[in-house]
Structure formats: C-alpha cells, structure tokens
Amino acid sequence: MKKRWGILCWILASSVAQAQPATDADLCRTTINNPDLAIKHCTAAIESRKANSYMLAQWYVQRGVQWSDKGDYDRAIADHAAALKLDAKARHANYYRGTAWSNKGEFDRAIADFDAAIQLRSDDPVMYHARAIELAVKGDYARAIADFDKALQLDPKAKGVHFARGRTLFYMAEFAPAANDLELAFKAQPNIYIALWLFLARKRGGVNDADDLLERETRRIRAGWPAPVIALYMGRTDADSVIVSATAGEPVRRREMRCEADFYIAQSHLIQGERPRAQALLQGVQRDCPKNLLEYEGTVAELRRLR
Fold first, then answer.
1. Which residue from 1, 40, 168, 296 has the highest number of Cβ atoms inside 10 Å of its Cβ?
2. What is the Cα–Cα distance from 247 to 251, expressed in whole angstroms?
3. Are residues 185 and 250 located together in one domain of the fold?
4. Does residue 14 form part of some domain?
5. Are residues 235 and 203 in the same domain?
6. What is the distance between the alpha carbons of residues 81 and 297, in angstroms, rounded to a whole number?
7. At what angle do helices 53-69 and 73-86 cross, to 10 degrees?
8. Around Cβ 296, how many Cβ atoms within 10 Å?
9. CB within 8 A of 44, min separation 6: which ones?
C-alpha cells in the first residue's frame, strides 16, 4: 500500500531510545508501533505538567503524531495546535499538523502549515517535499516542481522526491521526464507501486517496450496486491478479476484496494482511448476514496486533465 505521506521520513522517529525509560515522558517519546500505549504515556506526561512550555509542547506534538497514526486527524490537529500555543516554534508541530490537514483533504490549510514549517526550517528538504505534494494536488504544478527541485538541491538523495516529482510531471503530460524521475525512484527503492507509475509514464509516452520493461522489472517483486494490476497491464487478466482480487483483507484495507483497482483500471482505459469509461471510474475514486492515497492524488489530476 502506498500513501502519499508514507514516502516521507517520520522526523520524530529519530529520537534516541533509552535502554530502560523510566518516566511517562521517556515512554511518550520512545514507544513505537503502539499508538494507544504511546498516547497513554504522552497524556500522563502532559497532565503531570512537570515541564516547561518547550517540553510540554513536544509531548503534545508526540501525542498528535500518534493520533494521526490511528487515523484520528482531528485530535492530532488539536494537539499540534496546543503545542503551537505553548511554543510558536514548537519543533515539527506545523509539519505534522500539515500532514493531518492533508489527510483530511484540507490542502490549503496543509500548505499554510508547510509554509510556516519552511520559515522555521528552510534547510530541511522534507518541508519542501511536503509542500510540493500539496501544491501538486491543487494543480499548481510549476510551484510544486520548484519545491521538489529545492528539496533535491538540499539533498540529492532525499527519499521519495523523485517519485513525487515524477508523478507531478506525469500529471503535466510530460511523460518522458516523468519516466526519467520514476526510473531513478525505482532504482533507489524497487517497489511495485513505483513500477506501475513508471510503466504508465512509459506507455503513455509512447515507449514501445514498456510492457517488456514492466515484466522484467517486477518479476522479483510481484507478490500479493497489486500484482493483479500488472497482470491486467500485461494482458493476462481482465478488470473484473482485478476487482475480485481487491476484496481480500480487513474492511479498511479492502476499501483502499478497491480505490487503487479503480484508478489503475481507469489508467488502462485511458491507454486504450476509452475516456468515458476511465472518467466514470475516476469520478467514483474522487467521491468515495481516502484523500491520502497516491491514487486519489492521481485521480484529481486525471479528472482535471480530462475536463
């Protein structure tokens, strides 16, 4: 599964864990992969009030990150706002609140928070990367590309930037440059989703051996979902079979998989020149699907282009 924010580094994860953390404050900072437990310790630390404004703000930020991990973006936003009220320069509060706004589909508010984050951390490529993603969703491609370029200027190996810039070039119908960026992204991190976008850029850019390249590049990484989409693009299955394959797993994941299936099937229709069928599927994705999926981002761009 690829979500738009999954490609960015979780900044707070770099905190150094203690061997035997003894306090709620320690456990608030160091508990990983257990949001409920982290929230419990962060809440206890906050309620103890045993800290100055700077540290208290950081505990709010930490708890806000955990709320986002649970998908409770309203509580995350409230915690980051509390942190900023305590400390207007609270470390990463604007960044994480921006990601929460983005996950809710409040893209203008996300951009405003990333603007503030960049003012505080103008040397951090992650901040430019984050703002660029939102600008791309809004259709402000020129500014998005400028931010991606700035991120790469600051760190030529910035994680995920080539993938995101490649998608943005794809939305601009700049398919050859998009393929170049996506090839770099795939070489850095071979991933089936990146392979799918690379195939689409090549295919819609008129690359004759796009199918063969997809076959060769994904042979070792095809397992489970979304491998049926590759089978569709290779002519080995049909759209109905792809949809059936997207029905496994728990309900939230099934919903996401169906959204992904509809987006990639729509891309197949576009390749075949079947614009009305593609548009009908994409309208469903825009209406019904989570706004933090890559495929939602792509859907908004494709519908903008179809109109």
1. 168
2. 9
3. no
4. no
5. no
6. 26
7. 170
8. 23
9. 24, 28
Q: For the chain, what is the domain count?
A: 3
What is the reported pTM?
0.91
Residue 262 near residue 279 (C-beta atoms within 8 A): no
Q: Where are the alpha helices (DSSP H) in 121-250?
A: 125-138, 141-154, 161-171, 175-188, 192-204, 210-218, 227-233, 239-245
* Per-residue b or e along 141-154, where b marks 16 or more CB atoms closer than 10 Å to that residue's CB: beebbebbebbbeb
With tokens 């997207």, the residue in question is: 246
Does any domain span residue 117? no
What Cα–Cα distance (Å) separates residue 213 from each residue in 133, 182, 194?
27, 13, 13
DSSP SS3 for 83: helix
- The interaxial angle of helices 141-154 and 125-138, nearest 10 deg, is 170
Q: Do 215 and 239 reside in the same domain of the chain?
A: no
Q: Judge if 139 and 99 occupy the same domain.
A: no
How does pLDDT run across 74-133, given as a tens digit for each residue? 999 999 999 999 999 998 999 999 999 999 999 999 999 999 999 999 999 999 999 999
Select from 274, 191, 203 the least CA-distant residue to 233.
203
Q: Supply the range of the domain harboring residue 206.
A: 123-219
Distance CA 241, CA 104 (A): 31
Determine the average pLDDT of the residues in 57-73.
96
Q: Which two tokens stand for residue 183?
A: 């090839």
Centre a 10 Å sphere on the Cβ of residue 118 and count the other Cβ atoms it contains.
19
Residue 288 CB: number of other CB atoms within 10 A?
A: 12
CB-CB neighbours of 179 under 10 Å: 25
Rg (CA), the chain: 21
